Predict the structure.
Amino acid sequence: MNQFKTDGIIIRSVPYGESDLILTILTPDMGKIPAIAKGARRSKKRFPGGLNILYHGSMQLAPGKKSDNLYRLDGFDVAGTFSEIQGGYHKVTVASFMLELTEALTVEGESCRESYRLLLEALTAVEDCADLSKTLIMFQLRSLELAGYCPDIASCRLCGRKLEPSRSFVFSVDRGCLYCQGCRSGEGMWLPISTGALMSLLWIIKNGPQDFSKLKLSDQAGKEARYLLDSMIRRILGRELKTFKFLPDR
Ligand SMILES: [Zn+2]
């Protein structure tokens, strides 16, 4: 394969040697890929627009040596940098968490067009100072959905009763689904959760991110929804994301 062009966003950057950077780049068609930017820390000639995380645009890449599995980044036309995110601590922590979660849930070499679009849309919402907690809930839920782990919360898994305000439900983090209190059985992590929080999550699943600004979410429902999603992510990945502890509470 010769040199090729792709859209990409830098989701991780680590200094390497005296003057290079090792990048993780999320691309729509190739998933996340590792790439080396030679000389990027010494000279700005090849990358005049810079090479920081969150920078996105059109990239010229070439396959590197077979032994190290790294692509070589030869050029980068920067389309956007999300510079406004750098201006606020909470914005930075939420954006960093989004990058880490995307990296954890996407696969090298596999197309991820929807995850790519979701990340750019969510970062734009963070930059525009939208409600950070709501943006985070939408992003976590959609990320789980795209990775095949959408929580099943429309009805009780055992008896099939629909979610409605007069009943009380518990969520099984291990199974990723909902049970009425009476149908709950077995071990594992169970979360009592209000129907208000469940209805909000279900609303996002049904309506998608385009109608997201219409979602009404109380502080309490937001907290519960976040707790459910955080617990699911921890369970699926089998670990805590490093950036999780820096996230704003609400
Ligand atoms: Zn039931």
About this structure: The first helix runs from residue 89 to 105. Residues 88-246 form a domain with the de novo design (two linked rop proteins) fold (CATH 1.20.1440.120). The pocket of zinc ion is lined by residues 156, 158-159, 161, 179-180, 183 (CB under 6 Å). Helices lie at 89-105, 113-127, 132-146, 195-207, 219-237.
